[in-house]
Design brief:
about 250 residues; 8 helices
């Protein structure tokens, strides 16, 4: 089955207002920038996003955030995004902060049909006990707080119950992909992209290099095509447009 789309705009055209999105990437590495830009142009708002972080000001998910298109974020890291922090602290944005490993496993569980799992991460903290601010009121007080989670003692240790994440759509970026939707991720771009791809009911992948079915060795494929419904081939210019989140250099 050929899953390639004529354009990125065509691939995201049916994403409605209020949709839930799992978005791959780590910092600015492996972020599906082209899909995010065309989704911004498409105009969907009130989006609920699940991603490790929310880009930076004016880049990655920061584009949607800056224009007020995102109403809720589930993630593990605010990062360098000042607008993210401003919206959260002013009560404009609901934010569920999740331990990074737990977030990864919640996405993976959603893709593999595991409804929930127990983990030691967060035991003895507000992650388990509840009370983390999800949304602030304009005066700075907590308007919505996280609820307490079920805990259980197993083999003499306490664990907290975490639920899987499944989203309406997923946006990911791959190094190589074929027309059947098989994907290969490269280096740091493999962070959260495979997991986001698994969690989406409809997964849309932008690929830097599109190859024909059979060209990818089976042992090199990170995500099989069963998880991917749409594939968009990037232009050379789009593939080369990659930013560094925080550049540091040493003195000579």
């Amino acid at each position: 089955m050929d899953k390639t789309m004529a354009s990125a705009a065509r691939a995201v055209a049916d994403i409605p207002a209020g949709a839930t999105l799992a978005v791959g990437g780590f910092g600015l590495s492996g972020v599906p920038d082209t899909l995010i830009r065309v989704l911004h142009e498409q105009g969907a708002d009130d989006l609920e996003v699940v991603s490790n972080n929310c880009g930076v000001d004016g880049r990655g998910l920061g584009i949607l955030l800056g224009s007020g298109r995102i109403s809720r974020v589930t993630g593990s890291y605010v990062g360098e995004n000042k607008e993210f922090a401003r919206q959260y602290l002013s009560g404009e944005l609901e934010v569920e902060l999740v331990p990074q490993g737990t977030l990864a496993e919640r996405l993976r569980a959603g893709g593999t049909g595991i409804p929930a799992f127990y983990t030691p991460a967060g035991v003895g903290t507000q992650v388990a006990a509840g009370g983390l601010p999800w949304r602030h009121a304009p005066d700075g007080t907590v308007a919505v707080a996280s609820p307490p989670k079920e805990t259980r003692v197993l083999a003499g240790h306490t664990y907290v119950l975490e639920h899987a994440i499944i989203t309406d759509y997923a946006l990911v970026r791959a190094w190589r992909g074929d027309r059947h939707g098989n994907l290969v991720f490269r280096r740091a771009a493999a962070n959260f992209n495979p997991l986001a791809a698994m969690a989406g009911r409809i997964t849309i992948a932008e690929v830097e290099e599109l190859v024909e079915p059979g060209e990818l060795a089976a042992e090199h494929i990170h995500i099989p095509g069963i998880f991917v419904q749409r594939v968009v081939q990037l232009t050379p210019e789009q593939a080369a447009d990659q930013q560094i989140e925080k550049r540091t250099v040493r003195s000579r």
